[in-house]
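We were asked to recover a plausible sequence for a given structure. The inputs and outputs are reproduced exactly as logged, with field labels preserved.

PROBLEM: sequence recovery
POSITIONS: 710
GIVEN STRUCTURE:
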């Protein structure tokens, strides 16, 4: 009986357990399938978002690499180029609030896809003027452009030139004046960049929140870190693309390249700037395609289904099964949030640490944005490098140094478990030593090239103060020359002359870039001259300049790395010094301040300052000032580096004030802070919270336009 009862009991237990095992097996199977579906969907979104970050970083950095090309192509000053550069931030600001607020209510992937299409449309619009402006015209003496008419550079008498040639020349000028409206086509570049800013707006806020909502909690920070890492790669390819396009002539494919008489080293050279925008536009279109096929929602990970915290989207979207009561409650909640706006703003601006850090960051970003925007121009003008080589150096050396500096800053904080006060010290030290290194660049410049009538007189001495009048001398007094021309030639005495006419040249042979001028009266009168011949193009900078350029590169890379080390600690300081419920609001105000007070004005006033150092302005075909042809190297160095250094020094003073306030509020036992007499407003509740974990470091490696900070 006992055996049979045991058997029955065993049989009964089997009967009762088997169904449970099957159901649990089914639930485990469905859970694993759901997990695979969730992981697959979020990884596809991650890959697509990474590609979009790459595309927007590439197009943004490519714009920086074409600053000088755009300036020359449209004959505009640096200050106007600064306005074009700042239009991206204006476009971003136009809809950032609408996108951030209403984006969570709509189909986020498709909004990002639409943003990519707008961004690509803006990129294509930037390139469009190339196809409507006609061919690029540069100033060249007729004998250097395969002319069949033999004309002496020094036009002692206009009767030397056949009447038909003069009439043809005048007809071309008149035709050019009729098309002079094409010079205002830089407006399309500005509008295109504005559209780029509008299209880029939803990518960061909606993309990051989508990952945060549907990724496994422990993987969210890693995914965001991957996206930011890919974003750093974009500028490398952007500047390398700029280097490649700068080697190609602007009208490649439209004109016979053998007829081009200028080289990439010439101040009038314009590369195929438009080609890179077409490539970047295609990449933006391709990057946006996957988002049109991604779902509005992804399955929630099992670990987050029972979480008390809801996604950003769930805070705004009212499900269909909600009744009127819940709808009324949500409306009341929104009204309460709106009512709490001003007190929150007052609380935020009443935090001295936040305000001081905001001032320090805004001024520092003014310094960095201005420096980065005109760095290619500075290298070209100061060291006599081509646009192609300049972009190659920046893309291959400077940007990796920035990326390594950002990574090092986060690694240092994690390795040494640095708290808030330590983060402030590290950020301050990074800025201090970075700008100290920048100070040494004042000693690493090149002297002005010897240009007769501009930097030296025709007899080898320093020129008079009135540069325009100094262009004329006894040696070219018998020539009918224009002071507005810029067609430089290099005499055998190593001096550059503004034109063959102003050099007093009487004859020439050959054509194109091989043209040689003879019997140049001004070349022969120079103190060190032994011959009176000259060749097309400006003379090279002094022998010491290549060595100085090498020193500049080394110090520039170290400076870029040093300044970037303080990026992550500064961002951690920003997050830690405010109350938890005000973090999103504080970051929004921070981003807004950087864009409005630094991203927009910095390129403009840096450009205005750089324009003051111009020695020789180009002239448009129908009159009016064009782009600058020659800068005063010493003045450019002092203005460019000086303005950067002054702004950086002011930001350091604010950083010192931040550290002073933090020290005042910290206790000797720990680095926790107190605000309004309570722990936790700017501090932490435990020592563990005072340290930076890996998730925080990965998430905090972003700040506005980080991808282009050099």
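RECOVERED SEQUENCE:
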């Amino acid at each position: 009986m006992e055996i049979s009862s045991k058997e029955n009991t065993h049989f009964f237990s089997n009967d009762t357990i088997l169904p449970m095992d099957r159901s649990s097996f089914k639930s485990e199977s469905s859970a694993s399938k759901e997990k695979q579906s969730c992981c697959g969907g979020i990884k596809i979104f991650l890959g697509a978002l990474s590609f979009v970050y790459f595309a927007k970083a590439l197009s943004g950095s490519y714009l920086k690499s074409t600053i000088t090309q755009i300036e020359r192509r449209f004959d505009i000053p640096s200050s106007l180029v600064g306005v074009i550069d700042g239009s991206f931030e204006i476009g971003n600001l136009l809809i950032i609030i609408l996108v951030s607020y209403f984006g969570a209510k709509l189909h986020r992937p498709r909004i990002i896809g639409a943003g990519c299409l707008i961004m690509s449309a803006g990129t294509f619009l930037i390139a469009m003027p190339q196809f409507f402006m006609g061919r690029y015209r540069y100033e060249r003496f007729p004998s250097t452009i395969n002319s069949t008419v033999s004309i002496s550079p020094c036009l002692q008498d206009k009767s030397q030139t056949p009447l038909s040639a003069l009439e043809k020349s005048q007809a071309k000028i008149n035709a050019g004046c009729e098309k002079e409206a094409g010079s205002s086509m830089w407006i399309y570049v500005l509008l295109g960049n504005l559209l780029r800013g509008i299209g880029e707006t939803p990518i960061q806020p909606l993309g990051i929140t989508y990952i945060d909502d549907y990724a496994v909690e422990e993987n969210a920070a890693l995914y965001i870190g991957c996206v930011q890492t890919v974003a750093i790669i974009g500028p490398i390819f952007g500047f390398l693309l700029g280097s490649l396009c700068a080697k190609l002539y602007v009208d490649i494919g439209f004109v016979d390249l053998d007829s081009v008489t200028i080289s990439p080293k010439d101040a009038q050279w314009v590369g195929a700037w438009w080609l890179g925008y077409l490539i970047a536009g295609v990449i933006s279109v391709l990057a946006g395609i996957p988002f049109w096929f991604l779902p509005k929602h992804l399955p929630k990970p099992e670990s987050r289904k029972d979480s008390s915290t809801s996604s950003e989207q769930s805070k705004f979207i009212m499900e269909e099964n909600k009744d009127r009561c819940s709808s009324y409650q949500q409306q009341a909640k929104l009204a309460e949030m709106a009512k709490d706006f001003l007190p929150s703003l007052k609380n935020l601006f009443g935090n001295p640490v936040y305000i001081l850090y905001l001032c320090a960051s805004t001024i520092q970003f003014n310094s960095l944005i201005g420096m980065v925007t005109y760095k290619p121009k500075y290298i070209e003008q100061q060291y006599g490098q081509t646009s192609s080589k300049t972009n190659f150096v920046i893309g291959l050396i400077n940007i990796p140094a920035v990326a390594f500096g950002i990574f090092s800053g986060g690694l240092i904080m994690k390795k040494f478990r640095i708290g808030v006060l330590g983060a402030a010290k590290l950020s301050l030290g990074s800025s201090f030593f970075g700008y100290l290194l920048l100070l040494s660049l004042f000693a690493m410049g090149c002297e002005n090239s010897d240009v007769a009538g501009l930097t030296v007189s025709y007899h080898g001495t320093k020129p008079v103060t009135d540069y325009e009048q100094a262009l004329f001398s006894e040696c070219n007094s018998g020539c009918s020359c224009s002071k507005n021309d810029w067609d430089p030639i290099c005499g055998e005495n190593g001096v550059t002359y503004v034109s063959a006419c102003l050099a007093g040249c009487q004859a020439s042979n050959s054509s194109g870039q091989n043209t040689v001028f003879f019997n140049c009266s001004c070349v022969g009168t120079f103190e060190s001259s032994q011959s009176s011949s000259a060749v097309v193009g400006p003379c090279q900078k002094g022998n010491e300049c290549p060595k100085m350029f090498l020193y500049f590169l080394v110090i520039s890379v170290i400076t870029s790395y040093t300044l970037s080390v303080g990026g992550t600690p500064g961002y951690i300081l920003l997050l830690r010094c405010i109350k938890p419920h005000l973090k999103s609001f504080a970051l929004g105000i921070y981003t807004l301040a950087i864009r409005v007070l630094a991203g927009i004005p910095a390129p403009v006033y840096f450009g205005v300052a750089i324009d003051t150092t111009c020695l020789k302005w180009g002239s448009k075909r129908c009159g009016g000032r064009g782009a600058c042809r020659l800068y005063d190297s010493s003045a450019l160095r002092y203005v460019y580096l000086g303005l950067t250094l002054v702004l950086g020094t002011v930001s350091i003073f604010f950083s010192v004030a931040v550290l002073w306030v933090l020290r005042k509020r910290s206790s000797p036992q720990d680095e926790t802070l107190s605000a309004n007499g309570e722990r936790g407003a700017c501090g932490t509740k435990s020592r563990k919270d005072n340290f930076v974990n890996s998730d925080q470091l990965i998430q905090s490696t972003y700040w506005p336009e980080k991808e282009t900070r050099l």
